[in-house]
Design a protein that fits this description.
The complex is a heterotrimer. By secondary structure, chain B is α/β, with parallel strands linked by helices. Chain B contains seven helices and 13 strands. Chain C is built from twelve helices and ten strands. The chains are: A alpha/beta, B alpha/beta, C alpha+beta. The structure holds flavin-adenine dinucleotide.
Chain lengths: 311, 249, 375
């Protein structure tokens, strides 16, 4: 049997998330087809033919698929799914919106956000916000799956030579119409809810020096924080303070720059998923909790990190 | 117009869950249980619709063991008018829950059914969409703004990279995202009143729904512990590790 | 559900500002508004006056949870419909007094204080020297009061005065005095070791004229007052101790789990494990004692002995537990960056307020000797 991957695309090209989902499909094994559903998305369909490991691209092009409305896309998927053993989509907001709707219509219990493939019917997925990993086995004939893209290394976007097959989209459901879209402004996120936090400490030496962190925070879409020592020294305002008496944060990535790592500070950030420390004192306690430590002069290292990120 | 909201009883979000040593699941004995936070947002939204005069009755529904009554009482104390428990001790997976909710929706005929976008225990993010599929109604997932007028709902959704707004016909399923509203507290006078509000009990059998699980959990483990921190040589190595090993950027 | 609800409110609204309120000596009055908005201001006020008419047990739970987040807020709550003054008004007040004060207190709009102590009348309440002398339809009040919690915020005061020249308790009664009455002044803040944000102050009366209908307890009626106070010895003072001690143990446990010395978390040292276990034993013994007393009070079966036993034990338990919490956290436990030193300071006064632990031991002993207690 073959596997169907629902592509995430922007009409002209294929998104990285699709490549990771193809990688997950390849782990399951079997012929891989990709569905490009959209309106005026021939470019994306073409791009999909070049994905390594894909043998066929199903291209459904219709105005009612333009904004990926769940009712219409799910109906399309349900119509196609019967010829597949697995239907996979990346766990993007589109994938999460559409796939369960399709799964229910197929009477299949979806397996959400898998991070690993154990066998064609057995998968690993995080539960309890990633505090536990469950291995689950599906008994459904058609397995409907969303893929957490960080769990799989993307396959190459080039090297494939799939054929394109046009498929007809079901008529518009008439239930839902698209009104508009608003792209988020790259304003700095709020400290306690940010996915990434860049924090400076006493080692910054001055308020002026915090400017050095801005390009890094901008690049990462990060919130900015500080240790109490930096706040007490008057470098930055009070509401930047992370720690026992300040804000408690638990971002995916916490970058501590020029912060020694006093226990008061650790209390405010120790639950971060990944901690990076940049400090010139090799013995600084922050390195004991850091996943990645970079020893050296922050005034040189921070611009270098920004430069690497821009590459 | 009637609004239904579904409610799941889950391990309280403040509890640090521990994986059972035999790998069969997480420890839930003697652990504080609460209403799923996204469901609190769902209840709040329904109450606001009622306070705005759009909705006339708010009914809270939960599926699960008898103890879910307590969670439903919380919904009543928040302000829901009545509650329904579909009582079963079976393990319930999202497909089964959506079938049960569909059966309740058939009886109650709401114009709007508000569901949390995901439960913080199994993190499936499926029930609302599945319920929409089974009822054949429109869906608006991950809502951060909801307006109802002229028999339609205009919903702003939180999507990757920003917000998208759609207009959907009623009846509809809405799933809530964090920024939709800030739930109120349970007030003391309302706790007193909740004791007298009706709470009905149904069963999957009575609703004619097969809830047998489709997924078998083979094992549950703790994610690998944070690796002992390592020093990296330079900025390039750091960015490489963050991209390819930790995958956080 | 009551506990869950108040815990959430207290942890989200009261805890974040607790350290600042203490440091800045600023009563967190905004918290009273939060309590009122969520229906927690009129807990003990009868339903016909807009309250909830809840019992002692619920009130104790609420006080415990508020104190777990902020002891100062719990003290202020004593000035709302959860405190002793409205209970006294409800129990013995005239209809006019009830109508005048209770509905507003139930909404959190009127704040009450309670004033018994004087410079020369502490444990010896019978030595109250503030005089109220009848003059037509009024009483003229002269004298001063000490240690009045909430004084700087209160709108109305229940004040113990000598209504009758008869010496001792027989001449003492109580009168309601409103803020702003000419001749009545609230003094400067009294700075004690802890509970910095309760607005505690002395009161001064100089030819202060108060309508005679404000007398709530006539001379010689103090027995009645003490009966009502017995319940309060359960819900007020020790509930706060229990809440603070619970927070201290909770935070100490979190801290010692994280803190590493000699390459191990502190909780891996058996010496410290035993200390933490002892804290838990002490805390839970106190909780059990207090809950049992609260249940008896709710059922109208609380004896003076029960109240005193619970108060003394929980007062002293909270000193031990908060003291140990400092010890297991080392210098950080003493630092004002962590809450431990505040917990320790905040509970200290409770063994003195509402009857010192010595005075309560006197009552326990008296009951024993009278034969009212069988071991
Ligand atoms: C935090 C706090 C809040 C308070 N709030 C209020 C309030 O709102 N309103 C109010 O009116 N008062 C309030 N008080 C005052 C409190 O009621 C008195 O402090 C208390 O009654 C004790 O009186 P005293 O301080 O004068 O001590 P004293 O009576 O002078 O006692 C000193 C010591 O002698 C001991 N002692 C006294 N008599 C005896 C005896 N017969 N046998 C054995 N030992 C004895 C005492 O136990 C104590 O150890 C508050 C006190 C505190 C600490």
């Amino acid at each position: 049997m073959a596997l169907l991957v629902i592509a995430e695309h922007d009409g002209a090209g294929i998104k990285q998330a699709t490549l990771c989902t193809v990688a997950a499909a390849a782990k399951i094994g079997g012929e891989i087809h990709v569905l490009v559903a959209g309106h005026n998305a021939a470019g994306a369909a073409q791009a999909a033919t070049r994905i390594a490991g894909v043998s066929k691209v199903l291209h459904a092009d219709a105005p009612q698929l333009g904004e990926f409305l769940a009712e219409n896309v799910a109906a399309l998927i349900v119509g196609l799914a019967k010829s597949y053993s697995h239907v996979l989509a990346p766990a993007t907001s589109n994938g999460k919106d559409v796939m369960p709707r399709a799964a229910a219509l197929l009477d299949s219990q979806q397996i959400s956000e898998i991070v690993s493939v154990e066998s064609p019917d057995t998968f690993v997925r995080p539960i309890y916000a990633g505090n536990a990993l469950a291995t689950v086995q599906s008994s459904d004939a058609i397995k409907v799956i969303t893929v957490r893209t960080t769990g799989f290394d993307a396959v190459s976007a080039e090297g494939g030579s799939a054929v394109i097959e046009s498929v007809v989209a079901p008529a518009d459901s008439g239930l839902s119409t698209f009104v508009g879209r608003e792209v988020s402004k790259s304003e700095r996120p709020e400290l306690t809810s940010a996915r990434i936090v860049v924090s400076g400490g006493r080692g910054m030496g001055s308020g002026e020096a915090f400017k050095l962190l801005e390009p890094l925070a901008d690049k990462l879409g990060a919130a900015m924080g500080a240790s109490r020592a930096a706040v007490d020294a008057g470098y930055v305002p009070n509401d930047w303070q992370v720690g026992q008496t300040g804000k408690i944060v638990a971002p995916d990535l916490y970058i501590a720059i020029g912060i020694s790592g006093a226990i008061q500070h650790l209390a405010g950030m120790k639950d971060s998923k990944v901690i990076v420390a940049i400090n010139k004192d090799e013995e600084a306690p922050i390195f004991q909790v850091a996943d990645y430590g970079l020893v050296g002069d922050l005034f040189q290292l921070v611009p270098q990190v920004v430069e690497e990120l821009n590459k | 117009m009637k609004a239904l909201v579904s409610i799941k009883r889950v391990v309280d979000y403040n509890v640090k869950v521990r994986v059972k040593s035999d790998g069969t699941g997480v420890e839930t004995a003697n652990v504080k249980m609460s209403m799923n936070p996204f469901d609190e947002i769902a209840v709040e939204e329904a109450l606001r619709l009622r306070e705005a005069g759009t909705v006339t009755e708010v009914v809270a529904v939960s599926c699960g063991p008898l103890a879910c009554q307590e969670t439903l009482r919380t919904a009543l104390a928040l302000g829901a008018d009545r509650a329904i428990l579909v009582q079963t001790d079976e393990e319930l997976q999202p497909l089964a829950v959506s079938k049960l909710l569909k059966a309740v929706a058939d009886k109650e005929a709401p114009q709007i059914f508000i569901v949390g976008k995901q439960a913080i225990d199994d993190d499936s993010n499926q029930t609302g969409q599945m319920l929409a599929a089974l009822t054949g109604w429109s869906q608006a997932t991950f809502a951060s703004k909801l307006k109802i007028a002229d028999g339609k709902a205009e919903v702003t959704r939180e999507v990757d990279g920003g917000l998208a707004t759609i207009r959907i016909s009623l009846p509809a399923i809405i799933t809530t995202d964090l920024r939709l509203n800030e739930p109120r507290y349970v007030t003391l006078p309302n706790i007193m009143k909740a004791k007298k509000k009706p709470l009905d009990t149904l069963t999957p059998e009575a609703l004619g729904v097969d809830v047998k699980p489709r997924l078998k959990t083979l094992k549950v483990v703790e994610p690998s512990k944070r690796k002992a921190g390592a020093k990296v040589a330079d900025a390039a190595a750091l960015v490489d590790k963050l991209r390819n090993e930790a995958k956080v950027i | 559900m009551i506990r869950d609800s108040i815990r959430k409110i207290a942890q989200e609204h009261f805890k974040p500002g607790a350290a600042a309120a203490d440091r800045e000596y600023r009563p967190p009055v905004e918290n009273i508004k939060v309590l009122a908005d969520n229906g927690f201001a009129g807990v003990a006020i009868p339903e016909e006056y807009g309250g909830l008419g809840l019992g002692v047990f619920e009130l104790m739970l609420i006080m415990e949870e508020v104190s777990r987040a902020c002891a100062n807020t719990a003290m202020l709550m004593g000035g709302t419909g959860g405190g002793p003054t409205p209970r006294v008004i409800a129990a013995v007040g005239t209809d006019a007094l009830k109508k005048k004060f209770l509905p507003k207190m139930a909404k959190g709009e009127l704040f009450a204080a309670w004033s018994m102590s004087e410079p020369n009348a502490g444990s010896d309440v019978g030595n109250v020297q503030t005089k109220a002398i009848r003059d037509g339809n009024e009483y003229v009040i002269n004298g001063s009061k000490m240690w009045c919690s909430g004084a700087q915020l209160a709108d109305v005061f229940l004040v113990l005065v000598r209504l009758d020249p008869t010496p001792g308790m027989k001449g003492v009664g109580a009168i309601m005095i409103e803020r702003g009455t000419p001749g009545f002044e609230v003094g400067k803040h009294l700075d004690l070791i802890g509970l910095h944000a309760t607005g505690m102050a002395p009161l001064y009366f100089e030819d202060c004229r108060v309508p005679a209908e404000n007398v709530i307890i006539p001379a010689g009626g103090m027995r009645k007052l003490f009966e009502i106070l017995d319940d309060d010895r359960v819900v007020g003072n020790p509930s706060i101790c229990l809440g603070v001690a619970s927070a201290a143990l909770e935070d100490a446990l979190a801290y010692t789990r994280e803190r590493k010395q000699f390459g191990r978390a502190l909780t891996e040292f058996q010496g410290l494990q035993w200390k933490l276990a002892d804290m838990a034993i002490d805390l839970e013994a106190g909780r059990t004692l207090l809950y049992a007393a609260a249940r008896k009070a709710a059922a109208g079966q609380l004896t003076p002995m029960d109240a005193s036993v619970a108060k003394v034990y929980v007062n002293e338990m909270s000193q031990r537990v908060t003291n140990s919490a400092i010890q297991v956290c080392g210098a950080y436990g003493l630092s004002n960056e962590f809450p431990f030193e505040r917990y320790y300071r905040d509970v200290r006064g409770f063994a003195i307020g509402y009857g010192t632990t010595e005075i309560h031991r006197n009552s326990i002993a008296r009951e024993m000797i009278l034969g009212n207690y069988k071991p």
